[in-house]
Design a protein that fits this description.
The protein has 356 residues and is mainly beta. Helices cover 3% and strands 39% of the residues.
């Protein structure tokens, strides 16, 4: 069986880097909407809209709007594109089944505040995903797929540890989550710093493409994650312990892989391709040890491609490898780092015990 990434990494890497804007996007007025998510607890409602035949994009069979929490087991079927409107949760105890190669779009623009103020798909602690390949993308106000990341991202919450990211929380001790898929692709997902500037509050917080919160190894069965042109970091992993075959991040606005107090094992291929933009706070790895150390590990024989800035004067991401060149020391000027090849001499460890 052909790997999900066998063509996409090579074909999309140059395209993604070429399309990365020189400056961070701001929210244009036309993307701001007054229509928001439904109140929590209402029954899931979807409605079908036929697309006009004269659109410039190839006509789709149909698309469906998902605007309320998913409170019962649900199937998303091939041949339909689904558009998430507002902050939508897959509730505890609910299974979302997705047929192979389904596209789920997150509608861009502000929404009235729930936990966050943009459209997002949140898998609550104790929920389940059963899928093959899923493509997540962004949509404009008409539901058309666009290449602009101004949305709330995708969140996977486990029961392994309690943690919070962007106001979305995992709950330790809740029913066990289970996320199964061969591949998830996040294309133009997340959002950059808004006009008000960077910060940790709900108004100024940027949002990563894929966030994994409090997920344990028994809960994570997604083999491949690809993040392309994310609005902020390509992937964010917090208070988790997971394994996967392939992790690919291409052309993130900020960091490639952001990890907080977590352990990640990538068994086959880890790729981070960044532009040479000299914007501040852009690193291959951003490690934070709020509740414990950080470790990213890969076995001997795995493939590695890193092209981007390595750390900064305050970020300590230490490398143990017989194959890779030594990155800049802690406190040294930030430099562009490049390595591509197999780990032929031994395994790789990238870890941190130092506060960012």
């Amino acid at each position: 069986m052909r790997s999900p990434t066998s063509t996409s990494v090579a074909a999309l890497s140059m395209l993604a880097l070429a399309s990365l804007p020189g400056e961070r996007s701001a929210y244009p007025p036309e993307m701001i909407s007054q229509q928001g998510p439904p109140p929590a607890g209402e029954v899931n409602r979807m409605h079908t809209e036929e697309l006009d035949d004269d659109k410039t994009e190839p006509p789709l069979l149909r698309h469906e709007i998902i605007s309320h929490d998913i409170i019962r087991d649900t199937m998303l079927r091939r041949g339909t594109t689904y558009v998430v409107e507002g902050e939508v949760h897959v509730r505890t105890g609910v299974t979302l089944r997705v047929e192979d190669d389904v596209t789920i779009l997150l509608r861009n623009g502000y929404r009235p505040m729930r936990a966050i103020d943009t459209s997002a798909l949140v898998f609550d602690s104790g929920s389940r995903l059963e899928a093959q390949k899923i493509v997540f993308g962004s949509a404009d106000e008409s539901g058309n797929k666009v290449t602009k990341a101004l949305n709330g991202g995708v969140y996977f919450c486990g029961s392994y540890r309690t943690a919070t990211t962007d106001g979305i929380s995992s709950v330790a001790g809740s029913p066990v989550s289970l996320f199964k898929a061969s591949c998830i692709i996040a294309d133009h997902i997340g959002r950059p710093d808004p006009r008000e500037g960077d910060g940790d509050d709900k108004v100024c917080d940027d949002i990563d493409a894929v966030s994994i919160i409090g997920v344990g190894r028994d809960e994570w069965r997604i083999a491949t994650v690809e993040s392309i042109c994310s609005g902020d970091d390509g992937i964010d992993i917090t208070n988790s312990s997971i394994e996967l075959d392939t992790l690919v991040v291409m052309a993130p606005i900020e960091d490639g892989i952001n990890v907080t107090s977590s352990s990640i094992t990538v068994r086959k291929n880890c790729t981070v391709l960044m532009s040479r933009s000299d914007a501040v706070d852009r690193e291959i790895f951003d490690f934070e040890i709020d509740n414990g150390p950080v470790l990213l590990a890969m076995p001997q024989g795995a493939l590695v491609t890193f092209s981007g800035y390595w750390g900064n004067r305050a970020d300590d991401a230490l490398v143990t490898s017989l194959d890779m060149p030594r990155p800049p020391e802690l406190g040294a000027p930030n430099k562009f780092y490049e390595f591509s090849g197999p780990l032929s001499k031994g395994p790789l460890r990238v870890d941190s015990n130092t506060t960012d």
